[in-house]
Write a structure and sequence with these properties.
By secondary structure, the chain is an alpha/beta fold. It has helices at about 40-45, 95, 125-130, 140-160, 175-185, 200-205, 220-230, 245-250, 275-280, 295-305, 325-330; strands at about 1-5, 15, 30-35, 60-70, 80-85, 120-125, 130-135, 170, 190-195, 210-215, 235-240, 255-260, 285-290, 315-320, 340-345.
Amino acid sequence: MKAAQLTAWRAPLEIVDLPEPVAGAGGVVLNLLACGVCRSDWHAWTGADPDVHLPHVPGHEFCGEVVEVGPGVRRWRVGDRVIAPFILACGQCPDCAAGNQTACADQAVPGFTIPGAFAERIAVPFADHNLTALPESIAPALAAGLGCRVTTAWHALTGRVGLRAGEWLAVFGGGGVGTAALLLGRALGARVVVVDVVQDKLDYASGLGADAVVNAADVDAAEAVREITGGGADVALEALGIEVTVVGAIQSLRKLGRMVMVGMPAGDHVKMHLPMDAVYSGQLAIYGTRGMPAWRYPSLLSLIEGGQVDLSPLVTRHITLGEVSGELAAFDAPAPPGVAVITDFTR
């Protein structure tokens, strides 16, 4: 099968022919229908993620059709269209039993700890515990766009900080996660202000219904958010994983506010200097989040199918497997608005 393989850090991915994956016990093989290109893939491409060893096939935001079913799989048959979270939990450990699959100690993460979805096909372990049926009404490109950004934002807003209707949500970072948080926050009844340093992204956010936007290249972002919201946001979502946006998110909150960190800290940003005086005096809550448990997919898919949120503007570029390298390199600078999704795996 064709795959885009990482053979050297920061080098263009090589389009290679690899052996066909095999469905092990409890697993399936999917023919990929679509796969998103995410900033987390960029972390792998730069060598910042310690789980990635060369050579390696990245890609973790995917949906596909079942073409092989391994021994012990009960829920899935050849021909089923499915979507997967990027954290594949074992389904057997105490964390999984408690519904906290993202904390599973035996998890597999496509594109990081196991071969990913920048390929024609992928082997998916723990299939009964992780895969969700993909409704016919949801196009594969949109489903792949959900894979990391939308699911992570959904879990962050509803499963971690409990965003409520009427609250102010400040989104720091107007990329894929930030755009998803804007759309979902609006659907949940919140008022949303988006912060970025790229005016094109802010214009895009305004067009999608942001109540306000702040260009952090021109003003003190936290101060601007406090002024717009009349004292500070109730919830801040940090979508980049870098110190300046984490600090800004914390300082943008009103007293008793909640900040959730969605952005993945890596490289120079693993350790940060944070304004803990603001946390103390404001009695703030800081949440970390990573991924979304598979059992939460139905609530998100129902929201989409019911027309309460239109996520189609999220996907702005359909690309081929051979064009992935250019999308990864674009993350070295402020990337263009929207999400790139691989829909052609043949070239």
